[in-house]
Design goal:
The complex is a heterodimer of chains A (519) and B (449).
Chain A: E1 10-21, E2 24-35, E3 39-43, H1 50-57, E4 67-72, E5 75-77, H2 82-87, E6 90-93, H3 105-109, E7 116-117, E8 120-121, H4 123-136, H5 152-165, E9 170-174, H6 182-197, E10 201-205, H7 209-215, E11 218-223, E12 226-232, H8 240-248, E13 266-276, E14 284-294, E15 298-302, H9 309-316, E16 323-331, E17 334-336, H10 341-346, E18 349-352, H11 356-360, H12 367-371, E19 380-381, E20 384-385, H13 387-400, H14 417-429, E21 435-439, H15 447-462, E22 466-471, H16 474-480, E23 483-488, E24 491-497, H17 503-510
Parallel strand pairs in A: 3-10, 3-11, 6-9, 9-10, 15-22, 15-23, 18-21, 21-22
Antiparallel strand pairs in A: 1-2, 1-4, 4-5, 7-8, 11-12, 13-14, 13-16, 16-17, 19-20, 23-24
Chain B: H1 17-20, H2 27-46, H3 54-79, H4 87-103, H5 109-134, H6 138-156, E1 162-163, H7 166-173, H8 188-215, H9 222-244, H10 254-272, H11 274-284, H12 286-291, H13 296-322, E2 324-325, H14 333-343, H15 355-374, H16 379-403, H17 408-414, H18 437-448
Antiparallel strand pairs in B: 1-2
Classes of the chains: A alpha/beta (519), B mainly alpha (449).
Chain lengths: 519, 449
């Protein structure tokens, strides 16, 4: 330990933290050291283990479920839950905000921490304290406003006010600016810098490397569940490329399978597609979008979170999202109507959701039952399921996709993320689709399984199937797709063949509406 | 991940015991079946042999068949993620209309039964409409139904009792007839039924081994299959003999036959058909089911409708048994049926449960109350004990699931292996019967109880 040799004292020292889930080692001897009054960024690809590490720190995974020590303010701490870590001054603000929309700002700030005596809340004190806290985060709104009536940027600030009320010493922010626009993001970053000036340390997890470069003092890079290095931003002269090199840690080439076939003719086309938000009328989530897919082609869709990628895909897939959809779908030159999911499946569409657990799988079910669940008719006679065929078919998929399980009668909940994703892929491959829409197919799965999934995608393309791959990870889009569309605020902003595409061009098109010359 | 041994094991292995009943990892059913056997044995000793007397067994079947029929429908409702509080009132409402149809409008008994089932279907369609298509929670819809149909019963019957004719009484109080040689001193038809079921069990065991071989799935050790089949055959024949050797004129009740047919039919429906799969899918994860092309509204509609049809059938059996329809028929039935389902291992959040498990759960409650009554314990104490048993059964289940603790036999099997690392979800809930063996091997036992 080098606590003494540094200029400022260390507030937090996580020492060789190891956390295992059934089948996966999420964290492997990860170490992290944060100094007092420092902004410390954690960088890593999706699934590298950043969130798991923060859950260990904040007591979501209580003491005893991980190996290693957490030294906080010079003492070994053993948090049994999130309340214990908050009492010590460690507050985590999750990507999905933990605010209650129906309650007011004041009520939210003091939720679980209400001032008063003997269970009776002192609203006068709460109110004046709320105003004070709001002033510290630069909010001028009436503290009686309901949370649902303020924007997401202000909600983020309320979360910070809530943390300040808990006497926070170490603030953890998980993707704080992911849902914010540029102005709100800048305001938030300034605020974090301001807190630093008042002695509050922050750990920030973000994919936005430019922001990290701007505010972080030190950066710890995590890759595949291991801590790779800690960089001092000023001393080491860190820039974005340096961070990316650490995060990726390998050349792009060897992760992706080779493209062995060339795409055929256009067989699937969506024209002038418009989708409205299901709750808010007049809010268009997809605007006038048109795209095509060729046989044997992997079409990438690049866009930031909330750009409308998933909404576009789901609305095409049997109108499973949104309202008042207008536009046409053509398959093999014929216009087709996809009014329900059943119709979409019948026309040879398949949709692998980005949210595997909520939308992709019934976690109570077994592997074999999940695999055949989207087209039971195929193995049924007169509505009676043939269980012999069911097992035989799922065994075939288990072997061909290399699903790691002792038997297909195992519950899907026991599988690791990558193997669950293979089950979802098998489920849709079983429907024998012509067009597979894969929404973030490698989210939250480890690197080895990712490579296998890329292999499966190219293999499906080689069989002549059309594939739409939606992804936030540019390297994977560039490595697997043949052609890439960019989407920004519900509009398709650019179309590039993979030969013309590079990360900078894509990122520009993903963040502005200016239409570039189509490829 | 713990990796169970994959191939057929030649020698004796303590872990095989858990495959004896409830293979495919559904240990929970084994647990509840074990509990039923223990409870039967305890009462058999405590009541000095009265529990397993033919007369008492017949009494249990007649007295609880309608609750068990309700449990069949209720488990499907609960798997789909709903609840039905109206079943007792629906039963009473159907009962009074059926009784009136025979006494006042002189319907023949068989027309009256069809009429009753149609009423159930109509009520079910009404409640299903509100649940599935309007989206009102089933708790509310059926709470309203509970009031509406109870009031309907008392309105139509003028809060009075309406008697039913003799023919109709058969479905609730009738027995298998005496035919064949009288010299056997037992009811021949009941014995014949027992023998047929025993043969079916043996046949099923052989067939299940053969299909699992074709599928290349994990096979139980041969001795497990033989022992399982032997135990079941002996059990079935003993039970059949008990039912057949009762007081002359009595034998296996007609209501028990109806129950048995329903158990088999619905086990097949839930375990082997597309509709059954869809019920589990909607209850397990509605959104994922919809994105797989399942019409969840239709599933919810039919599940609710089916429940009311079964409730009206239960109501008619009850009316037949008590030979009249009264204003307070079916009071509290919903609670007994729901308790049976949860004791039988269903999950409150939906997605988990089996018909066989619910029937065993219902039998646990039935034997318990019957035994306590035989000991002359008042209904006040019986209720308290039943409540505690429900709480205990589900409590143990939830506790085991949360802490990922294996069952007792699982522990015995694990001792010779090295302990696993932190097991958060390694012993995740056993799900649904995944092989034909589970419901098939369990149902014949229920049939004869």
């Amino acid at each position: 330990m080098d606590q003494g040799s540094e200029k400022s004292p260390t507030i937090l020292e996580m020492q060789s933290i190891t956390k295992e889930f059934p089948g996966v080692k999420a964290l492997d001897k990860v170490s992290l050291s944060v100094k007092a009054s420092e902004i410390h960024a954690i960088c890593g690809e999706n699934g590298a283990g950043k969130s798991t590490l923060m859950k260990v720190l904040s007591g979501v995974y209580p003491f005893g479920t991980y190996d290693g020590d957490i030294v906080y303010q010079g003492e070994i701490v053993r948090f049994k839950d999130i309340k214990a870590s908050e009492a010590a001054g460690i507050v985590i603000i999750h990507q999905e905000l933990a605010l209650i929309p129906e309650l007011s700002i004041t009520e939210n700030i003091f939720l679980g921490n209400e001032p008063g005596r003997g269970g009776v809340i002192d609203w006068v004190q709460a109110q004046s304290r709320a105003i004070e806290l709001l002033a510290r985060v630069g909010l001028t709104d009436d503290p009686d406003t309901q949370i649902k009536n303020i924007g997401v940027g202000k909600q983020q600030l309320v979360e910070i006010a809530k943390a300040l009320n808990k006497n926070v010493k170490l603030l953890i922010l998980d993707e704080p600016t992911a849902a914010l626009n540029e102005n709100d993001s800048q305001h938030l970053l300034d605020l974090i810098l301001g807190l630093k000036g008042r002695g509050i340390s922050s750990i920030i997890i973000s994919h936005k490397l430019n922001e990290i470069e701007q505010i972080a003092d030190e950066i710890t890079i995590i890759r595949d569940g291991k801590s790779i290095e800690t960089l001092n931003v000023k001393a080491d002269g860190v820039d974005e490329d340096r961070i990316i090199r650490g995060m990726v840690g390998r050349t792009l080439g060897n992760r992706f399978p080779e493209r062995t076939t060339t795409p055929g003719e256009i067989f699937f086309e969506v024209r002038n597609w418009n989708v409205q938000h299901p709750l808010t009328a007049e809010r268009m989530v997809v605007k006038n979008s048109s795209f095509t897919v060729r046989r044997g082609e992997v079409v990438g869709f690049a866009g930031l979170m909330g750009a409308g990628r998933t909404e576009l895909a789901m609305s095409v897939f049997g109108r499973s999202y949104g309202k008042f959809i207008s536009g046409e779908v053509y398959k093999d030159g014929q216009e087709i109507k996809l009014r329900t999911v059943t119709e979409a499946i019948k026309h040879g569409l398949a949709y692998v959701s980005e949210d595997r657990k909520a939308l992709g799988l019934n976690l109570l079910d077994t592997i074999k039952r999940s695999i055949v669940s989207a087209k039971l008719k195929k193995i049924s006679r007169g509505d009676v399921v043939n269980k012999i065929e069911e097992t035989q078919i799922s065994e075939e998929y288990r072997k061909s996709l290399r699903i790691k399980t002792p038997t297909v009668e195992e519950g899907v909940s026991k599988l690791s993320g990558g193997n669950q994703q293979k089950v979802v892929l098998a489920k849709w491959m079983f429907t024998d689709p012509d067009l597979l829409i894969l929404d973030e197919p490698t989210r939250g799965i480890d690197v080895g399984a990712k490579a296998e999934i890329y292999g499966i995608i190219r293999e499906l393309a080689a069989q002549g199937k059309g594939i739409i791959m939606i992804s936030s990870e540019l390297p994977e889009l560039l490595g697997v797709s043949d052609r890439i569309y960019t989407i920004f605020e519900g509009t398709i902003t650019n179309e590039l063949s993979v030969a013309q595409a590079d990360p900078e061009t894509l990122m520009r098109s993903m963040t502005s509406t200016t239409k570039k010359a189509a490829a | 991940m713990s990796a169970p041994v994959n191939e057929t094991k030649p020698g004796f292995d303590i872990r095989d015991i858990k495959n004896l009943f409830g293979g495919g990892g559904s240990l929970k059913q084994f647990g509840i079946l074990g509990a039923l056997i223990v409870i039967v044995l305890i009462f058999q000793v405590w009541t000095g042999g009265k529990t397993l007397e033919p007369g008492n067994l017949i009494n249990i079947v007649q007295q609880y068949s309608y609750i068990l029929i309700l449990a069949i429908g209720m488990v499907m409702v609960i798997i789909a993620g709903h609840i039905d509080l109206s079943v007792g009132s629906v039963a009473a409402f159907t009962g009074i209309l059926v009784a009136k149809s025979m006494t006042d409008w002189s319907f023949p008994w068989w027309v009256a039964i069809i009429f009753g089932l149609l009423i159930g279907a109509a009520i079910g369609a009404w409640q299903g409409f509100w649940v599935a298509y309007v989206g009102v929670p089933a708790f509310i819809v059926t709470l309203a139904g509970m009031l509406i149909w109870r009031g309907g019963n008392q309105f139509i019957g003028d809060s009075a009792t309406v008697p039913v004719p003799k023919d109709f009484v058969q479905i609730g109080a009738g027995y298998l007839p005496e035919i064949g040689p009288g010299a056997t001193n037992v009811n021949n038809l009941t014995m014949l039924l027992g023998i047929i079921i025993a043969l079916v069990v043996v046949f099923n065991e052989i067939r299940s081994r053969r299909t699992r071989k074709i599928m290349g799935a994990v096979q139980d050790a041969l001795w497990v299959s033989v022992l399982r089949a032997t135990i079941l055959v002996v059990l079935i024949l003993v039970i059949a003999f008990l039912f057949a050797s009762g007081r002359p004129g009595t034998s296996y009740p007609i209501s028990g036959i109806i129950l048995g047919v329903l158990v088999l039919g619905y086990s097949f429906l839930t375990g082997n058909t597309i509709f059954g799969r869809h019920v589990y899918a909607v209850g397990g994860n509605k959104h994922a089911a919809e994105l797989s092309g399942v019409n969840s509204k239709r599933v919810n509609f039919f599940v609710m409708m089916n429940m009311s049809v079964l409730a009206s059938l239960a109501g008619m059996i009850f009316v037949a048994r008590s030979q009249a329809s009264g204003p307070f028929d079916g009071t509290g039935w919903e609670l007994d049926a729901i308790a049976a389902v949860f004791i039988g291992g269903a999950a409150v959040a939906g997605g988990i449960g089996t018909v066989a498990g619910s029937i065993i759960g219902g039998l646990v409650m039935a034997v318990l109350s019957n035994g306590l009554q035989l000991k002359g314990i008042g209904s006040d104490l019986v209720q308290i004990i039943k409540g505690l048993v429900l709480l205990l059964a589900v409590g143990i289940d939830v506790y085991n699931k949360m802490s990922g603790r294996p069952s007792l036999i699982g522990l015995m099997g694990r001792n010779n292996k090295k302990p696993e690392g932190p097991s958060v979800a390694t012993d995740a809930p056993a799900v649904v019967p995944t092989n034909a063996g589970t419901p098939d091997s369990a149902t014949p036992v229920d049939l004869n109880k």
